[in-house]
Amino acid sequence: MKTVLSEDHRQHFPKGELYxxxxxxxxERPERWDFIVDQLKAIEMTxxxxxxxxxxxxxxxxxxxxxxxxxxxxWDQWAEENYKGDALPTVIPARRMQQKEPDHxxxxxxxxxxxxxxxxxSGTWTAACASAAIAQTAQSLVSAGERTAFALCRxxxxxxxxxxYGGYCFLNNAAIAxxxxxxxxxxxxxxxxxxxxxxxxxxxxxxxxxxxMFASLHGEPEHAFPHFLGYSDETGKADGEGYNINYPMPPGxxxxxxxxxxxxxCARIDGYGPDAIVVSLGVDTFxxxxxxxxKLESDDFTAYGARIAKLNRPTLFVMEGGxxxxxxxxxxxxxxxxxxxx
Length: 342
Prior knowledge:
The chain has 342 residues and is α/β, with parallel strands linked by helices. Helices cover 37% and strands 13% of the residues. The protein has ten helices and ten strands. A hairpin with a 2-residue loop joins strand 2 and strand 3. The longest helix is centred in the middle third of the chain and has 20 residues, at 124-143.
């Protein structure tokens, strides 16, 4: 299995994250990448390649033009105000407020943000573009005939909607990869999101489309981020009706319950008949993850990698979350090994 990766991810490292009323060390930080790379090296899965330059034409099919302009210029606008810290929103357009993009960067941040824990730094745009390029390059490998590939993306992407960032995400890497498959000849693509948190951004992007099926296994939004999407009655609209499938599960969910949902999701995907599958691979379903409440063991990741392999379709793994630092590499690589050994 080829792994596409880039050191450019290190350019995004906020000074802190707002959590529990405190500014803490970000859960999504560069050493997550290091632990994954170390584990890949430990099992000699070291076919590493650098990404090709980002093809913005595909990105522009996924994200709104005004949003992309904002991301590309936000740090410069922030710095022009002589602010000293990372760029964080302080006001958002809540209910009964105007939904208009302000001119001032304070307003722009709130307008384009869906979760205020996520900071923009001087290197965020560079890192986000590199992450999207990783997904694109890995997708191109699978489109060219590879059975599978691993896009070691950082920052992650599945919370980034058409015109919103947040949840540590800026560009939706999985959605960009799915669009890439369509642009290179696929008729149908399935996105299987196994991250603990609902892939609200991916759902938003494809909600009215039938050429991409989205299936997400995640913590109940009543109890888990992002709280305001991920309910089971969200099934798509217009052409997308029936192609959006959510499996919200309660606190304490263990592998037997979780794997039953995976089995159903795989059956739905199989019936859909996609030409390729994009797996949003978050390993924050692990029992010791600090910001999640599922109870999967490390061996369970191997098991579900094997189940995904049984779909017997070209499959791209795109890295999302996973914040139990000491185990993030083990759990990620277990999924990949489970897939490869099946």
